[in-house]
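Researcher: I'm preparing a figure for a lab meeting and need a structural model of a single chain. I don't have an experimental structure, so a prediction will have to do for now. The sequence is pasted below. Please return the structure as tokens so I can convert it later.
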Amino acid sequence: MKFPRFVAAAAVALTLAGTAFAAPVEYIVGTGATYRPFEFQTPSKEIVGFDIDLMKEIAKAQGFKVKFVNTLWGVIFESVKNGDRDIIMSGITITPKRQESVDFSHPYFAAHQLILTQRDLKVSRLSELKGKNIAVCANSAGDIVSSKAFGKSSPNIKRFDNTPLALEELNAGGVDAAVGDVGVFAYYAQQNPDKKFNMTRDPEFEDQYFGIAVRKGNKKVLRDVNEGLKKVIKSGAYARVYAKWFGANTPVPKLPVR
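Model: Understood. Here is the structure written out token by token.
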């Protein structure tokens, strides 16, 4: 049976209209909201931070929606691998080991490890902390460099479930030092000036970068994230978010975005 031309044309028009006005896709973003200033919860349980603002800008630029879900660091990689999360963004350092299990976006934050020590302890290298108690977040980049320096089974490495707990232990005097990402540690020291922590970057600490991770092989989501990231860097939105969280006078890092 043949349909009149005007009926067929109307059907095509409706199909195109439905496509044009289709609701934007929504991605579930897992984030460990204990990593101030990148992601943390307000007293009302709202998740805020540098990563949150940046992801919102990326989504806006690329035309998708995001829903943030607080996710424990210990299961955050598994959550994206098994499909419970489409994206994970939680101050995640890009490492070769992690690249085996997830795909990373272009780098979005220049980072390296930092040593915080008590006011009466000054060091210039990580090796000088031999025999001292060191707090790290378990399985973090700080844990990796400390384990490499002193051995994974060293009794002097005190591992905590998240970075705030490691920093609280330092604050309370339970350890001599803590090792972790510069963005979080520098922000913490700035917020606690009375403690007069010493901040040191071991010259052997490599330059590192944070990346946004998706399930291995999920090219569609990865493309959306990368294209959105490039747009916000070009438009200046990245610089505005960076200034909000790290100060207007803090130089915006040059990122190796392809």
